[in-house]
């Protein structure tokens, strides 16, 4: 046997040894990638939270018709007053940590939430206290911004609806989180569709939910053109509004709110 043949034989590694090296390299790569991803998540967490907060403030400004592309969001939002409402009584209350108030998380805690009996919005539980926003002019309430959320077809939609001081007329509607079908239910974020809501009547003279999403041409101030091809999302949006503006939602608060912003 030649020297070259012996050299080639010696250079051939057993299959088990080759497999072990492959597994070792894969495990090391996974560990390195995990460390990088985890570190990035930790380092970027504060920035992500800040961006989420900024986006939420932007949507509040959009709903209140106070946002323009050149707007400094933090400066504009400084003119909006955040208040906390006990939904069962409709009265303003104080909370322990206003800056860290998280209505979504509180809904998951038994002591700070209630189970919903007539669950039109299909959210199961809601926080006992809600965060609302007021825009004032000359110490009088000009705009009331309310958080709303409820199930669509594939997701829970989170947004804000703003009302004029008459507590009936819509200033604007926005959604800052949703996972509906793009081009269908996802059109809830389409500015052209959202513009159809402006100056529509959400409540009647008795303070009861009265707005209806219709598949035909709207005939009056209580009707809005429904999303085309998105029946379940439209139904979810209708139920969401009917719930949050009812006696179980913001009904008591709106009934007791006066022009000075007292509830």
Give a description of the structure:
- This protein is of the alpha+beta class and 263 residues long.
- It has one domain (58-256).
- Helix content is 35%, strand content 22%.
- It is built from seven helices and ten strands.
- A hairpin with a 2-residue loop joins β5 (129-137) and β6 (140-151).
Residue share in helices? Answer: 25-40%
Overall, the morphology is globular
Query: Biggest sheet, in brief?
Result: 6 strands, antiparallel
Between the first and last Cα atoms, what is the distance in angstroms? 100 Å
- The tally of domains stands at 1
Q: Calculate the mean pLDDT score and round it.
A: 88
SS strand fraction: 15-25%
How many helix segments? 7
Write the element-wise H/E pattern from the N-terminal end onward. HHHEEHEEEEEEHEEHH
What's this model, at a glance?
The chain is α+β, with helices and mostly antiparallel strands. The protein contains seven helices and ten strands.
Task: Kindly list the characteristics that best describe this protein.
single chain, two-stranded antiparallel sheet, 263 residues, 7 helices
List the helices and strands and how they pair.
Blueprint: H1 3-11, H2 15-63, H3 73-77, E1 80-86, E2 91-92, H4 103-106, E3 113-115, E4 125-127, E5 129-137, E6 140-151, E7 156-164, E8 170-177, H5 191-194, E9 212-214, E10 223-225, H6 231-244, H7 251-256
Parallel strand pairs: 9-10
Antiparallel strand pairs: 1-2, 1-5, 3-4, 5-6, 6-7, 7-8
């Amino acid at each position: 046997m030649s020297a070259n043949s012996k050299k080639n034989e010696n250079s051939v590694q057993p299959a088990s040894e080759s497999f072990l090296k492959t597994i070792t390299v894969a495990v090391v790569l996974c560990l390195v990638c995990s460390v990088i991803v985890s570190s990035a998540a930790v380092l970027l967490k504060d920035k992500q939270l800040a961006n989420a907060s900024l986006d939420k403030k932007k949507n509040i400004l959009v709903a209140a018709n106070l946002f323009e592309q050149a707007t400094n969001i933090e400066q504009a939002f400084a003119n909006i007053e955040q208040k906390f409402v006990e939904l069962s009584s409709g009265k303003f209350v104080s909370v322990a940590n206003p800056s860290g108030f998280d209505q979504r998380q509180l809904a998951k805690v038994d002591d700070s939430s209630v189970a919903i009996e007539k669950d039109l919005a299909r959210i199961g539980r809601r926080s006992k206290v809600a965060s609302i926003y007021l825009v004032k002019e000359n110490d009088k309430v000009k705009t009331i911004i309310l958080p709303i959320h409820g199930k669509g077809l594939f997701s829970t939609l989170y947004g804000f609806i703003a009302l004029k001081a008459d507590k009936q007329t819509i200033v604007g509607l926005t959604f800052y989180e949703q996972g509906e079908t793009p081009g269908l239910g996802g059109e809830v974020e389409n500015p052209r569709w959202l513009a159809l809501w402006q100056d529509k009547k959400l409540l009647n003279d008795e303070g009861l939910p009265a707005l209806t999403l219709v598949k035909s041409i709207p005939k009056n101030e209580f009707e809005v053109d429904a999303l085309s091809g998105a029946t379940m999302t439209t139904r979810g949006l209708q139920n969401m509004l009917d719930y949050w503006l009812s006696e179980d939602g913001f009904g008591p608060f709106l009934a007791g709110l006066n022009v000075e912003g007292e509830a």
